[in-house]
């Protein structure tokens, strides 16, 4: 072998990349390819799920906040001395508490 040929062989041996089967670079590129395929194929499913969540959860959370505010207003009105009938007349839905004077007919023994 000539000197140039041996130098070329040495250079080829140095530049030779290790087996890509177990390298971190191979795992990253395979993972990125898999994620890209999943992103392209799963985009429609993701869009459907997020739209459904927005359509259902946003109005539900708004309704819960509104109900909480209504309960606070009713408590304030009760503290000011309004009766349940007056509060219902204002348009708020209030359940009257059960009376402690009435007795349970089924539970009483005579």
Automatic annotation (TrEMBL):
Does this entry carry the keyword DNA-binding?
A: no
User: How does it sit in the bilayer?
Assistant: Single-pass membrane protein
- Entry keywords, A to Z: Membrane, Mitochondrion, Mitochondrion outer membrane, Protein transport, Receptor, Translocation, Transmembrane, Transmembrane helix, Transport
Record organism: Albugo laibachii Nc14
- GO terms for cellular component: mitochondrial outer membrane
Q: What is the name listed in the Swiss-Prot or TrEMBL entry for this protein?
A: Uncharacterized protein AlNc14C114G6473
Q: Which family does it belong to?
A: Belongs to the Tom22 family.
Q: Where in the cell is it found?
A: Mitochondrion outer membrane
Q: Name one Pfam family in it.
A: Tom22
Q: Which GO terms describe its biological process?
A: intracellular protein transport
């Amino acid at each position: 072998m000539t000197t140039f040929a041996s130098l070329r062989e040495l250079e080829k041996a140095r530049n030779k990349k290790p087996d890509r089967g177990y390298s971190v670079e191979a795992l990253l590129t395979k993972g990125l390819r898999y994620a890209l395929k999943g992103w392209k194929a799963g985009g429609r499913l993701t869009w459907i799920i997020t739209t459904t969540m927005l359509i259902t959860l946003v109005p539900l959370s708004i309704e819960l906040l509104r109900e909480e505010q209504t309960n606070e207003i009713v408590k304030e009105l009760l503290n000011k001395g309004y009766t349940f009938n007056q509060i219902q007349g204002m348009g708020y839905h209030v359940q009257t508490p059960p009376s402690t004077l009435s007795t349970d007919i089924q539970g009483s023994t005579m």
